[in-house]
Amino acid sequence: MPAPLTLDGFRADLAEFLYQRPDEVDLDENPLYAGVDSLRIVTLIERWRETGVQVTFVELAECTSFAQWWQLLEARQGGTT
To answer: pLDDT value at position 44?
Structure first.
């Protein structure tokens, strides 16, 4: 069974694509304005699926902040943080 996705892991994944440190990731920022394009979203989805979180591209694309992404991902894994 894969290890659950944590908020720290989520921040680290985002930071990798944003060329930031995890503590620099602003969860209130809009992913598209931050520079996360569709290819990066698909890559992140695949990475998160490996942790057992099932989420679709459309679901993430409808979110307007990284915080909303995290809320969705957290709910999909049963609230484990």
So the answer is: 97
**pLDDT surpasses 70 at 5:** yes
Q: Report the SS3 class of residue 21.
A: coil
Cα(72)–Cα(63) distance, rounded to whole angstroms? 9
Residues 75 and 52: beta-carbon distance below 8 Å: no
The chain-wide mean pLDDT, for the chain, equals 93
- Give the closest residue to 51 by CA, choosing from 24, 78, 23: 78
DSSP per-residue string spanning 38-59: HHHHHHHHHHHHTTT----HHH
